[in-house]
Fold these 2 entries.
Entry 1:
Amino acid sequence: MVCMLHQQNMTVFVIGTDNDQAIFDKLQVINDEQGLNLALSFYMLNKLSDKFVSVFVRNHPTTPIIAIIKNIPMLIKVDNGGIVKSYLNWQSLTKRIVTAGRKSELILQACKPDAQMRVIDGTAGFGHDGLIIASSGANVVMIEQNPMIALLLFCEYQMMNDNPNWQKLLSRIDIHHNDFLNVSFMATLPKVALVYLDPMFPSDSYAAKVNKNMQILHTLASPPSMDDECLFLKIAQNQLMPNGKIIIKRPLSAPYLANQPPVQSFANDAIRFDRY
Ligand SMILES: C[S@@+](CC[C@H](N)C(=O)[O-])C[C@H]1O[C@@H](n2cnc3c(N)ncnc32)[C@H](O)[C@@H]1O
């Protein structure tokens, strides 16, 4: 059963030069095939210098914008007069993926994934945490609610899958554009040994350490309400096989999700993984 997420069309402007039409067409195909319901419009600029991009962004302050820069679709935000560009850049994780182990990755210490283990990453975002979990051999279902982020996830997956070195890892990853809190969608997924969640944090919990990817994600998605925090835990619990576990990523100083104390936490100087 295919369970689609019905949302009002979100308008997204895509900017590029005349060389970038093919990439825009690719985004449009993904949008149609995956039922993302984005209203994508392509604007051809003479060139994509920071100056041209920032003028375009200033002229369209309320519309989310993707810029195609050197063949890569990037999220764009104007901040303090400068341009912040953010993209999934899975290639940059290569070294971490190849060397990932419980000693080097706190997330793997907390999740303890095994080869063939079934995992749901219920808040996929840029897919970075899900990829590190999958590097252990686990099969990871990534769920992303925001259609624009889902578009970039599907696009990055396709681009990286052209590289034979990535195909084995990517064969263990399955991306869905949907809402983790949608009970009928979740009923279509198998029970798993691990549900991993990294919901948006309350924005004041990580001001000092926030990176630019998080800054941009914050403009596109909001932290869950207390009711939704409770639902995240309840739905995650329902999705578990016997002896399964839930791992929640939080900034070090953030309150526990739904104010529920975990059975164990793994922390460094910036983040915490709470186990339930
Ligand atoms: C903090 S980011 C996750 C970052 C991710 N762990 C990574 O490594 O890139 C949270 C993401 O969860 C998504 N999200 C929030 N609520 C969701 C829901 N109910 N279902 C699916 N995705 C959700 C947001 O759109 C956002 O992209």
Entry 2:
Amino acid sequence: MALMITDECINCDVCELECPNSAISMGPEIYFINPNKCTECVGHFDEPQCVQVCPVECIPKNPQWIETNDQLLEKYYTLLTDNE
Ligand code: SF4
Ligand code: SF4
């Protein structure tokens, strides 16, 4: 599953820099996670880095983007290839 940022976000900016996939960016009002780029940090880290740093715990799993661990790993490899 990709993760998502809820409207409890206080725009503290810390998660954007932590994302290894550059999946987080500022939206019209709050930060936003691009589900096509979020691997839940699979391939990079054991834990989602954005969740680790968010001071208000506003980054749950996105129920619209149900993915298995294998699918997340596949996304990780696809993103690596895209960045070459
Ligand atoms: S879980 Fe990882 S890949 Fe997904 S948005 Fe957070 S830091 Fe980025
Ligand atoms: S760390 Fe949490 S509160 Fe801060 S910008 Fe990211 S989602 Fe918003």
